[in-house]
């Protein structure tokens, strides 16, 4: 899929690797100036340097000051901000336990990045986009925000919050020409999911086939398949989709059933 993003300026959070990098790469290949932002500046810079349209910024989405400074630098350097992708996110690996045993500190850590960080980025970008009378905000949610998964109470709560925040933001910013949508990936092959599921030493590798048995396509998604959805939501011709959650899960939630 291709799109004409020439003249557009995008900021992607968590763009040093995985889904964020794939989205940033695809935007850059389609003509946008793209700010690859991440806590890991060296990796963000390495990714951005592969394209003449790439720029790198260090960004902690849990820091209000960091967020404000990043958006200011984008506007100062490129004159505008047309596309924000809220991709930065974390989950827990050490605490796969029921809610009565789930540590408050881990809850706070996950919510701070996955939901409050998204709010901070959206708030800062929305002020710019309202002045421009246009823009796109694309939130990376999860199928875990649509249907519950066990032993991940903080993650499912955060991603459910992303889903409804997407819809609420669409209502508020739509009259200003700003479209807000989300993508809900299913299981996607990344460095993180290799550690959890798909690697030879994955923590939960014994449950992989049980999970994939419920995915009609029989495999995890790729980061580029999620990036295609993000390109579709950013395409200037896609001008009437607002408040939508685009599920990219190989059909997993089409007939949601599981024994895990």
From TrEMBL:
**Organism lineage string:** Bacteria, Pseudomonadati, Planctomycetota, Planctomycetia, Gemmatales
Q: Which InterPro entries match?
A: NAD(P)-bd_dom_sf, SDR_fam
What PANTHER family does this protein's entry cite?
A: 3-OXOACYL-[ACYL-CARRIER-PROTEIN] REDUCTASE, SHORT-CHAIN DEHYDROGENASES/REDUCTASES FAMILY MEMBER
Protein name listed in UniProt: 3-oxoacyl-[acyl-carrier-protein] reductase FabG
Name the family. Belongs to the short-chain dehydrogenases/reductases (SDR) family.
Return the broad EC class. Answer: oxidoreductase
Coiled coil feature spans: none
The entry's keywords: Oxidoreductase
